[in-house]
């Protein structure tokens, strides 16, 4: 539970990580009070939360900017002059380096692969600096083929990787991770390239003066929110989030029985990471189940503690355990998409909404219902829906408000 001991802890970033662990097991008691304490701490520049955890705890773009900036100033202060000194490179093609630990069976890799394969090689030379181990999976082999050069850099230090970027005279260095798990922002803090870009992996500002641009669209970062980003927003015309049209389809024909779903029931689903679930939206979902007889809620199978807490929260609201169905992880992307098509409606989370999971639902032909908040992380599904030609509908607004 959230307690005064946690609030008063002097351990840097501990309160936010404590709350993040609570969300990992879907234990929401005291979460609102904890969030308010975190936001108050960020307002006075206290080191209370890591930036990625804070994205799912606060809905304020302004405070997310402050939180990221606190971390950047604390952990990423340069200790030496920038590696890039302002020289003008004279290359026949623009050299773009992509840096990531997610060049593997990961949502970022699946989204980006088609983009890399469509680079105009007469004008651009794409290079990879991979911060993860080589794996025998099809997506990593495909990624390796999409780059002109694929450097295994997992065991190299930030300083060494930054030096390699400088030695290779990289024109544009793209950080595909930001502050996500296993990220290495220290590479970019050394300023190895004249242009440094925050893209795709981290849905928010890095709050760092060494990042020049963030790739976005007008939905995820409206112009009135520019003040809350340290980077300059570069807009793509539809959605900033790419999709891969070459992903293989599953050869398996899924039935509801295969997925442990009732044959004739309406299936609400949410395949977001269970740590993004919150009591407010879960309560609304329980009211939906009670309003639609026989319907079920289909969720990604979480850890055992989270399962127990979710079932207990449902029971407190008069919903039987058998109406919550948990879907085990599938290794095959094709099988995942084919199984997902069994759902009737995808329900989004807030304040950290669906990103790749919303794209998967749309690809599988499942309609998506999202709530568009103020921050980048809560507007990605809206971006995808807008790009797909599915604008906001007011048809059922009053009905949904009554359920809330």
Label this structure with key terms.
single chain; 404 residues; alpha/beta; seven-stranded parallel sheet; five-stranded parallel sheet; 15 helices; 13% strand
Task: Give your account of this protein's structure.
The chain has 404 residues and is α/β, with parallel strands linked by helices. The protein has 15 helices and twelve strands. The protein has helices spanning 4-7, 14-24, 31-43, 51-55, 61-75, 107-117, 138-146, 158-167, 186-189, 279-291, 304-316, 333-340, 356-363, 380-387, 397-403; strands spanning 94-100, 124-130, 149-152, 172-175, 195-198, 213-216, 232-235, 267-270, 296-300, 324-327, 345-347, 368-369. A seven-stranded parallel β-sheet has the order 3-2-1-4-5-6-7, covered by helices on one side. Strands 10-9-8-11-12 form a five-stranded parallel β-sheet. Helix 2 packs antiparallel against helix 3 (31-43) and helix 6 packs parallel to helix 7. The protein starts with a helix and ends with a helix. The mean pLDDT is 94.
